[in-house]
Amino acid sequence: SVSNFFTGSDQIPWCDRDIIAGCEREVAEANKGLSDQTKSECLMRLSWALVHSRQPEDVQRGIAMLEASLDGISNRLQIRERLYLLAVGYYRIADYPRSRQIVDRCLEIAPDWRQALVLKKTVEDQIIRDGMIGVGIAVFTTIGLVAGGVAAALVRRS
């Protein structure tokens, strides 16, 4: 919608610090001897919470965790989920080209996955919006330079 264009809002949820803290407690508990499966599930919840945070340092931490967790995984569903969360993370830190590249990899695994398709559209809309803002800045800069040149010429004539 037009209002979303100007506000920059999207459909990707945010996560609060208290949820992140709860996930961190879960991971700490899981590390006290729970099964590898439980640890993995807790780490995925924490990764989800981090990349959905409003704090850039949390998002960066989530990205690092997800990238490290991709090594050694062969399950396509788990790879798809991690790639999707990585794409969200890169979107949140405004690395839109990287986000689009990763969501495309995700869609190679699951071409009809609605969540990934929505993220891809959101990323592409943001790239377009940023491009239009850049063009607007260039146009106003050019107008300012021309107006300044005309004003300087008029002052010299007087």
H/E order of the elements?
A: HHHHHHH
Q: Tell me the β content.
A: under 5%
Q: Briefly, what CATH class?
A: Mainly Alpha
- As a whole number of angstroms, the C-alpha radius of gyration is 22 Å
CATH architecture level-2 label: Alpha Horseshoe
| Main sheet summary | none
Tell me the number of strands. 0
Count of discrete structural domains? 1
State the separation between the terminal residues, measured CA to CA: 51 Å
InterPro entries: Fis1, Fis1_cytosol, Fis1_TPR_C, Fis1_TPR_N, TPR-like_helical_dom_sf
Organism: Opuntia streptacantha
Membrane topology: Single-pass membrane protein
Protein name: Mitochondrial fission 1 protein
Textual characterization of the structure:
- With 158 residues, the chain is mainly α.
- The protein has a single domain (3-133), classed as Serine Threonine Protein Phosphatase 5, Tetratricopeptide repeat.
- The protein has 7 helices and no strands.
- The chain has helices at 2-7, 17-30, 36-51, 56-70, 76-92, 96-109, 114-157.
- α2 packs antiparallel against α3 (36-51) and α6 (96-109) runs antiparallel to α7.
- The radius of gyration is 22 Å and the shape is elongated.
- It starts with a helix and ends with a helix.
- The model is unreliable at 1-8 and 133-138 (pLDDT under 50).
- It is found in: Mitochondrion outer membrane; Peroxisome membrane.
- Component of the peroxisomal and mitochondrial division machineries. Plays a role in promoting the fission of mitochondria and peroxisomes.
- This is Mitochondrial fission 1 protein.
- InterPro entries: Fis1, Fis1_cytosol, Fis1_TPR_C, Fis1_TPR_N, TPR-like_helical_dom_sf.
- Belongs to the FIS1 family.
